[in-house]
Request: fold
Amino acid sequence: MSDHAASATPSSERLSTGNYALWKLRARALLTKKELWHAVSDATTKADDAANGKALAIIITILDDEQLKHVEYATTAYEVWHTLAGIHEKKDTASKMFAMRKLITLRKEQNETMTTFLGRAKTLRSQLRSAGHELQDDMFNAIILSGLPADYENLIVTMETLSDTLTHDYVVSRLLHEAMRRSEANPAPTDAALAVPIEYRADDRT
Reply:
């Protein structure tokens, strides 16, 4: 294995199903740092070109075994890169659409704790990010508030008046506090978990 490939392995996440968008960003940065990106972006680069060999070695080294079958007969870094793009960008588009549809239609179920509801929203946002789309906090806040039942309307209106300064951390904290207040006022077995909200913390937005 070349020095370039050996140094790439520990610092680069391997490509696997579901992480193409982030892998692509890291892999391009690595190849650029090694001054090898031209070998990937130029379709005229020959298989026997020294830069092609180094770039190809790096890319192959940062692929999971399941990805190797797609490029085992490729002879240039350009061919490998664009073959992987053709496979994963289609999948990421489908994943992005699925996560976005689920977010738009997200609703808090009648007996669902606020912690679980916020956890579901967080998971969908993470899926969207993995597919290459970063959902901004203001839009994410709006989706969460839209998914609350009608008896949260007064609280929603109050928070909407703070739209210019409304942070995601504040929304999460306020909703968890409100859910806890309601649980204490009307204790029910389904709300017992609200006493120690561990599925979703206000400072954990990943």
Q: What stands out?
A: Residues 77-104 form the longest helix (28 residues). DSSP finds ten helices and no strands in the chain. The radius of gyration is 23 Å.
